[in-house]
Amino acid sequence: MKRRLAATAALLACLSAAAQERELYIRGGFNGWGTDNLLAPKGKGIYEADILVSPGNHAFKVGSRDWGDEWVADANQSVTVAPGTSYRLETQPGPEDYLFVRQTGTYRFTVDASNPAAPLLRVARLETPQAAAAADPHAGRRATASLQWPTWDGRQETARFSSPDVDSELRRYTHSTTMNLRDPGPQHSEYAEQSGLPRIRTGNLAFDALFALAGAEMRLDSVSQIRDGNYNGGAAIACECFATGEKWHYVWTRDLSYAADLGLALLDPQRVRNSLDFKLSGWRKGLPIAPQVAGKGGAGEDGLQIVQDTGSGGSWPVSTDRVTWAFAAEETLRTLAASERAPFAKRALRALSNTIENDRIAAFDRETGLYMGEQSFLDWRDQSYAAWIPNDLASMSSAKALSTNVGHYQALNLAARLAREHGDPARARRYEAWAASLKRAINAQLWLPDAGMYSSLTAGHFDGAPMHKFDWLGQALAIITGIADDERARSILARYPHGPMGAPVIWPQQPDMPVYHNRALWPFVTGYGLRAAAQAGNVAVADAAYESLVRGAALNMSNMENLEWLSGQPLLLDERNPSLIGPVINSRRQLWSVGAYLGMVIENVFGVSVTDDGIRLQPFVTARLRREMFGAADDITLHDLRLHGKRIDVRLRLPAASRDDGYYAVERVLVDGKPAGRTIRLDRLGARNDIEIVLGKLVPGQQDIRRVNDDPYAPHGATFGPREPVIAALQYRAGAATLAIAPGGAGQDVVYSVYRDGKRVADGLSAGAWTDRTASATACYAVEARFAATGNRSHHSIPRCVDAGIEIPVTDPRTVSNLEPSPPNARFAAPHLAAWGQPGDRFAVERIDVAAPGTYQVQVRYHNAANQVNLGISGGVKWLAVKDAAGRTVAEGVVQLPHAPLSKAATPSVYSTPLAARLNAGRYRIEMSDFYNMSYLESNSTFSAAGGLTGPSNRFDIHGVRLLRVR
């Protein structure tokens, strides 16, 4: 104990020096977790940072640039700091602390290390003089316009626009708003149309200005250096790339990919290519790669593949949506000049092939035909998964998500086309067959006929049922990629709920969760919803998307990361429920929001999209858009669109405005005055081109839309689903299984459904006991709650299985390893193999006697504390093999051992993803060997935490193995 106290004192003694030498910062939601707010030394061990903080419930930590030092008030739970109160800091990682702010003001954060044994944090609000009333920024301008919208609470918000040089080729604009902005600053801004980017003239100054705003924000996100505190010691990395937003200074695979696909690849393909290339990586030099990777045809000599960013459970393959890279790559290949396209196409094929082959090994479920992994972009687990999932990320890993599977479908199709282009027809046929099979599986496994939509995700192992959870991105991507046929597309568009400000990214909402993915609309997802609506001809959904995108940009003076979905607010300040305030973080000029707005105008309004060898002209101008936005014009023009060295002007001739609803069909297309088709080859375009599209009759289209509404402050309103229930007990006797169902819902009448082996076997139950009289000795059960009034459903409970399983701890003499079990300690109550998993480590369990034949799920009982459950690149990924008495392999494959929570008390062990093995009665041996995770990639060699600077990390503590009979 004395030795431990001495070590702690020595660590704390370094605090004063560390704050100066390592440059500690206040990092939180108010500054994008960046390093803008240095704790400056004030002498005598005192460090201060004065920060202008807007209203909200802001998470924050004290941290160094590279997160090598991370200090919080309590390493086990979040603390909401009260201004004026001192808190002792713990100098170790832990949950974020919070500061609740009602009104924008300057707060002084003070770290007092004058007593190294007891460093203190104190936050105080500083008195600031009241600012004088601002002058009207539009005064004296002859060209002005305004846009107005009613608010959810009966008021009205207005955005105003003006230009001092309305007749100039490149205009300047002033933009103001009455809405309270998310971040501190003036209520007006100025920006200008950008040379080299297209501009529009629509007769509506406000609409023209908002397109210029998106172009200006695209240029602000165009950088020559990127940085993230977790990489390169927080120092800048040279890259002519797109940064992710005002508060996000790095390149993230999915953000970049969706942004490029929505619009950026059309306008700056070279910068998109650079950014895409930054998200590719090969193996670290000199690293031994498991033969299961190299021997399956997917790794290649250098292992070049798409990077899955840091995240849930330690990244890939808990998350597998790195394949979204293919959306951006396809658009970039269409827009790059031929000389630049050829080398990128070759590199893209190699990276896609390696990624596809490795994902097929590590994340493909042959039984369902679907890929496993977290939902694409919805990567804050507690926001869109069951409350128990962060404690059991293996169950999230084994679930199948619609959006991620659509990403795999896109990657397979693009790789097939590139393989055919590069003279590899066998590889092309392989990927085409996989894509066709995947499309069938998505429609067979995820389509819910009673809902008329695709399930967003299935439950994980031991359940596997598609749940009545829905997300707008997945539905829209299924339509756009052609996975959904016309009938299903119409059904989705008619049935996905829309609030008064637009469509939420998930449905129904999660109770007792703040706004971020939950209870939010994201403009980039709205952009995909618009694409899907235009493709399928749904006028009502398209109009909702147009209004949502224009309103969000106009009132916030920026293309924001996200908004609360029922009020459209960039921050819903709920003083009664501070823990529910959000969006938790929100950045201006978020890259994919910028891409969505640019794409809305160019692709949807003016109808210009790029094909493999030209452009397609398919505008979707609705009657409402015509009369409300372009009512003063007979034609609207897109000027100076540049593609493959050619300059294109597109003029839309508009019919008279109509009070009816519908969209205007294309009557004819003229190129330089000559008739043309709607698809034009590039070799038929000159250096300068005037394209005229004449719109004709009004087509009714589809008018169906599901409208919902609620009080945005209601914590358990009609737009929420219930919390998942719990199976409190499970008893099996003589062919009957009795479940004790503990309530999970609140606020409404709840009924329950029981699922056995992923199939619903009972519905409309009350909480309490229920008996399945046709149960088998291998059945696994899960329970779902449903609000009787709304029909909104919960996630499923933790599944429970009848079979107790064969459990073998590491202390069993049948366990064979190069490591000796460590004794119980403060963290673990049982012996374990500590930090097992170096490439040369051995682990096996032999002489396992199986008495009854059947299908068994083989799991490793473990704990992985390499990083927090939401961070890192060090999720355990290993190869598991089951061999019979003759040494023949009867089952093999990847198992995942994601990061797991730590506890101040004894930390419970968890189970890996299962390996299915069909076993006869007999004796077996289990062997575990190395595979790889994202820490094996060169791009992560400068990562600050586990798996980075000190080398790859694929290690965890092993407690034992389990064989569970499920059939």
Task: Write a compact overview of the structure shown.
The chain is of the alpha+beta class and 967 residues long. It is built from 18 helices and 56 strands.
Plain-language structure description:
- The two termini are 51 Å apart.
- This protein has 18 helices and 56 strands.
- 23% of the residues lie in helices and 30% in strands.
- It has a six-stranded mixed beta sheet.
- Among the domains are: 2-126, Immunoglobulin-like (Sandwich), CATH 2.60.40; 713-801, Immunoglobulins (Immunoglobulin-like, Sandwich); 806-965, Jelly Rolls (Sandwich), CATH 2.60.120.
- 53% of the residues are buried.
- A hairpin with a 2-residue loop joins strand 38 and strand 39.
- With 967 residues, the chain is α+β, with helices and mostly antiparallel strands.
The CATH homologous superfamily of the domain at 806-965 corresponds to: Galactose-binding domain-like
- CATH class call of the domain at 806-965: Mainly Beta
Approximate strand percentage: 25-35%
Sheet having the most strands? 6 strands, mixed
Q: What is the annotated CATH architecture of the domain at 806-965? A: Sandwich
Residues in helix, %: 10-25%
Total helical elements: 18
Question: Could you please say which CATH topology of the domain at 806-965 applies here?
Answer: Jelly Rolls
Unreliable stretches covering 5 or more consecutive residues: 1-20
Structural class: alpha+beta
Indicate the mean pLDDT: 94
* Overall geometry: globular
